[in-house]
Amino acid sequence: MTYQFLLRNEPFELDPQFESDLFEEKNGNELEFAIGKKCKNDWCSPNYIQWVQKSLNQLIKTGTKLREDGFHDSLTLRAIKSFQKQYGLKPDGEFGPITEKTLISKGASRPPELKQLPCSPTKAETLIEKLNKYRGNIPLHILLGWIEIESGRQIGRITNLCERGYFQIYPGEAKNRGIKNHQLLSYDEDHSIQSGVKLINYFIARTNILVKKYGLPNHGEVFWKVVKLHHWIPSGPEKILADMHTHGVKPSSWAAITSYALDLKNRGRLKKKIKRDPQQGIHNADEMLRKAGDWLKKLEANKSLSKESDKSAPELGWEAYYGNSDEQEFEIQDAPSVPMLLNCKKTLLGDTLCVKIGLGINIAPNKVDKKTGKPTPDAKFFKIQPMTGIFIPQAYVPKKEVNIIIYLHGHKGAYPGNAATIDDYWNGSKFPFFALREEVSASEQNVIFVAPTLGPLSQAGNLTTAKGFDSFLSKILAALNKHFVSKSSQQEVKNISRIILAAHSGGGSPMLRIAELQGSSNTLKISECWGFDSMYGEVEKRWADWAMSHRNAKLFIYYYDTASRSKILEKLSKERNLQNVCVHGWKKKDFADWVKTQPLLKKSNAGPHFWVPIIYLKERIQNTPCRVKQVASLSQSPARQREVILRFPSHRRMTMQTSKSPFLVHNYEFNPTAKYPLTEVELYKGKIKLASAGLPKKGNYVVIKEAPAVFLPEIIRKAREIALKDKKKDIAIKLNPDTWFRQFTRITFLGRRFKDGQYIHIEMAKLLKTIEGEFIKILGSSSAEKTGDILLNNSKEGISGSRKTSSTATFSMHMFGLAVDVNYLGNPYIESENDINALNNVLKSAALLMNTEVLAYKKETRGKFKDRFDYVQALDTVLENYFKLLDSPTELLKYLRDSQSSDWRRLTLSEAKTKIQSNLNNLAGFLARGKYKGYFKKNAILNFDKRFVVGMEAMGLHWGGHYGDMMHFDMRPTGVGYYIEKARIAYSKNVKEQARYLLREKKYGEYTPDKHFQNIGQRVAALG
Ligand SMILES: [Zn+2]
């Protein structure tokens, strides 16, 4: 027999060998199932099961009666088995002609007619096309592997448990997951696939919980294997991971999980807990991924198969998946990358675009059970129109980068109605309190206001997944360019610079989930979150945590109905010294008074809750400071502050702030069981100069010297005192001068090793490891090393920490093990006046040659660069371009001819080369790069990806680049580092004062610091 015969209804269009390999591999000895004979009867159809149940109830007199509902459950299965046993049949619980005949011979009535199940595997091409339609963010090969292992692509396959369809969904499973019409899973391809995707999304959501709870990796093979493990038995994975957790074993890899679960001792215990042998599930997951891997290869080899309808859909590969919750419905990809324009109402000022963007959720209920989150029995379902509004105020001028506000509306029941779109919602003539566009316009800021249509209860679909959020934003950008910018032939908008999330009422829930998202590069751009009476549910701590871990972002919470939770957040923020949180609300009486002055408000029946967004929106866009004494009246006149630009916290300002009013104790969550081998570092016992006064030549010289072995523990002790004064017991306990220098360790960071003899303190190690984990998540790459390659521009250099002894630096954070130098060769320390002069001379030469603006290095960043990194990067680029001319004489010649500077124009090519080379040599010498001239020529003064520096700062480190030390990061804003920083500043100030005091007293000579000096110093000051 040939395969053509086997698959006679499915003519080959693909490589026949490929098809037949798969078929053979999967079906093996089950070939007879699909061929020749009749296809299998659908024994699982509800009317047949009902007949079985009825018959068994008649024939088996003992035991509990079966419910005659046509639903195949475990009781029915058990009854069938016991019937089979009783009459000497094979007790497999499966129905077939023999069991049926026996039932009839014992007195059962005639069974209903049976449908025949479809019996050949679906063509790969057809399947892939449909999978692409519905799979959302799930990688294609995972789904193919899943189907392959479950049904061998045979939609008609059923088991004795009545599992059905491509994904072999059990009736009970279908019921629990709200999959309607279980029988249809065997006949309708679309339904079968949509339901499978729905089920897998549910397993993904459960797996994500395990990621959070037990530190399971959130990507790669292990992630997907655990997803699959849920199909074996949904509670199984949690039970295994919980057991591992109590025994202190981390589920860091699949091997870790399987070797644990299959270890003889554990396996027995798990068997009891799960009531199944973990081996089964593990084997099935392994097989699924093996098949998926095969598919991945096939897909890569046959690109036409894997064609995707949407560029923003995930590419093939083992990429991370940050899936979402139950809420996720079937996703239908928007085919074109530029969203279609829909009709909608305009406002007087500015432009409104309504565009078609699906959120991967078609319908949503208007009522859910608060506990379970599931629709209540009386819930109604409403279609969510795939319409997002983009409002472009009149003041908007397209620039390369755009700032956007994403507004998430509240529940729609009261206003504007459950079925309403955003076009209905922000219709100010109908609902004056939702006239948001008018406020955006009045603010006169260069910002775009974006509002998607959400569900009746603000259901946001895949907007709250990393990929969904990223895809949404890229569609907004595409729409803005296509439907607005290009029409006025203005500059194309390339990037989103800053994102503000705003939400009213129930929109606060998706807002929080977006803010907390991991795995989206866009979340780094979230600079502010605005909650307008939106603190519902237990969210106070989560917002406080968010504010703590996003210290360069701001949180504004305005309340009316949500006063109590808002106030809790306010309290938490005060406790944690979170200066980036602003909570504000009115007393009800004040509000009532204010209402009297507002004609619009008086006319409307909507309560104050609905007015909260509009009251604060404009002042928020205009970046008015937090505490608002008096609330501005709603805009009827044009805003006055024309010149105010939307001021986002700049990276530089952020750090300046943190050194003054930092947010203590960075919220790091590290693996408590990880082992850090500890080492004691040897402190230098020789005395070094700490401070001096006077001039040695004149003989009026005072110098204070001390050994690091003495003053370093002294500073730790002082830090502990300050922490105790601040009531930070958990930090104080770590600041122990006796043990501090015994708790040093070595780690790898972003796949880079520490240089020989280099150590860091364990607190720094933990923070770095946490940061590393976040970076991996944000970039979604497969390993720490690959993440490092991206962030460190492929430099493989080792990292410096603290040296065992130090005879040079005095109070450096390196000495406490709380600093690292990264990419030393590509990031010099521009320190002295001489360094800066040398650098600026070269920058000037370069600018004169290349006819560009003369940039100069300054200690402070001013002018057009608000961001320190961008500023240094700009200088770096000038240098690199300049040095590059050494290797491209044609370019150089061109510049020489065009240069406006006679200095350059009169030079010959070789003279010009000599000049550039001498600039290079000279600067390399100043910046201690003389030995690495080649490297310096290529990388100049900065060699990081911007995300590295921004990320390091956002997650608790201070970048030395602010004062010229490009390679340096230390822990001064965070935890123990914050107190050591305070203590070392105090100590240094103290010894300097001592030196000056001794000089005034003419007590010249060499001293060691006086511990009791503070008192003397105060007395002297008082007398003077
Ligand atoms: Zn350093």
Automatic annotation (TrEMBL):
One Pfam family in the UniProt entry: PG_binding_1
InterPro entries tied to this protein: Peptidoglycan-bd-like, PGBD-like_sf, PGBDSf, Zn_M74/Hedgehog-like
Highest taxon listed in the record's lineage: Bacteria
Coiled coil residues, start to end: none
All copies of domain Peptidoglycan binding-like, residue ranges: 49-102
The protein's name: Putative peptidoglycan binding domain-containing protein
Lineage: Bacteria, Pseudomonadati, Pseudomonadota, Betaproteobacteria, Nitrosomonadales
